[in-house]
Amino acid sequence: MEPPPAATASRGAARVTLAGLRKVYDGGQVAVHGVDLDVAPGEFVVLVGPSGCGKSTTLRMIAGLEAASAGRVAIGDVDVTATPPADRDIAMVFQTYALYPHMTVRENLGFALRLRGRPRADVAARVAAAADTLGLTPLLDRRPRALSGGQRQRVAIGRAIVREPRVFLFDEPLSNLDAKLRVQMRREIAALHRRIGATTIYVTHDQVEAMTLGDRIVVMRAGRVEQVATPAALYARPATACVAAFVGSPPMNLLRGTVDHRAGTFVVADADALAVALPPALLASPALTAVAGHELLLGVRPEHVRVAATADPCTTGPCTADAAASTLPMRVDLVEPLGHELLVHARRGAAELTARLAPNASLPGPGGAVRLAFDPAALHVFDAATGAVLARGTVDR
Ligand code: ADP
Fold it and tell me: Which of these, 15, 223, 361, 371, could form a disulfide with 309 (CB 3.0-4.6 Å)?
């Protein structure tokens, strides 16, 4: 007797290549402006970005559900740009599970295989293997209405697995689940990928989902790719202010202002034009010299902001920033004790800063004065007009 086929992509994961992929919908709206992307065999790549940035359109073009207006899609070494979805050797899992309500879990899992005329024994074996992988065996005779949201999503994933595709496409698969179940399913999808090793392209608007699942993340905005990087690189070295603001919770602080090269400071426009010192290495960056006078954004992550002193500098002396120490006098807006850490949100004028502190940090209450200090090695400077990064601190975090 032949052993049952494993619920794995045994035929090998495929490379997926997008070249100049573009979509213009009827009516002339450019949804995707020309995306280039190379997904390695077995890689888990996440497309992430705010709603409407073109993630789903890109995925649907990879699936063949949406025709590309220009550019190419290749799966393996085969150009599939004009290939119908059914012949692309892909399987897609949707946000709405799209299960057949009148079929049992077993029938739902096996449907695509039966449709392709696979032998009954082969279908049964593959369904059994997928059900085992996903913990669905006790539910095989139930109909979808008798399943929880998480179980339905598991069936939807199982339906993709049984086909042993060379590429898995996921379109916001966890959006309909509650927060706790989302975390659990996220773990299951990660474990499944480790086991199966199929090339996976996954769309989400949730940056935490992207960071926890992706080998690499593609951040999209307004139909364009902002950055492609590993989660760690995306966090430490965002290429644009939008990426910096999108990744991380709370996100990177961004202060509007200009560089005063003579004084060696950043003048914070929204904070009464107070100045904070910039480290010499940052100031020496040619990209910063080239934009003298331009409006810039100074970026610093909440964990690189600390409390320097709680005395009110405006009552104890002249109301100045301590430029030498890269500090800003501000007022506490809100303190959020989260147990494992404490978030303090402070402002001065229209400038806002969030600091991530130890849970036992001593702080004044709302309205109190606080002097916030930046780790100079952890500063990023972006061009306010283009959003592009111009310089960042010396420590490669
Ligand atoms: P995302 O998945 O990032 O939310 P989409 O790819 O769904 O973004 O949409 C990108 C842009 O294309 C949006 O502005 C959206 O309104 C538009 N769009 C999506 N589908 C269609 C369609 N079928 N016809 C016209 N415009 C569309």
Answer: 371
Ligand 1 geometric centre to CA of 61 (Å): 12
Q: Probe ligand 1: pick from 26, 29, 203, 242, max atoms within 8 Å of CB? A: 29
And the tokens for 83?
Answer: 């290939």
The closest-lying atom of ligand 1 relative to the alpha carbon of residue 23 is 12
- Short-list 36, 30, 80, CA closest to 54: 30
293 pLDDT tier (thresholds 50, 70, 90): confident
pTM value? Answer: 0.88
Residue ranges of alpha helices (H) inside 240-335 are 241-246, 280-283, 286-290, 313-316
> Ligand 1 centre from 25 Cα, in Å?
8
Ligand 1 residue neighbourhood (C-beta within 6 Å): 25, 29, 31, 49, 51-57
Instruction: Tell the residue number behind the tokens 């065996």, with chain if given.
Output: 137
Q: How many CA atoms lie within 13 A of 397 on its CB side?
A: 17
Pairing of strands 70-75, 78-79: antiparallel
| Calpha distance 225→288 (Å, rounded) | 24
Q: Tell me, in angstroms, the distance from the centre of ligand 1 to residue 390's CA.
A: 31
Q: Cβ(16)–Cβ(81) under 8 Å?
A: no
- Of 35-44, 166-175, 286-295, the range with the lowest mean pLDDT is 286-295
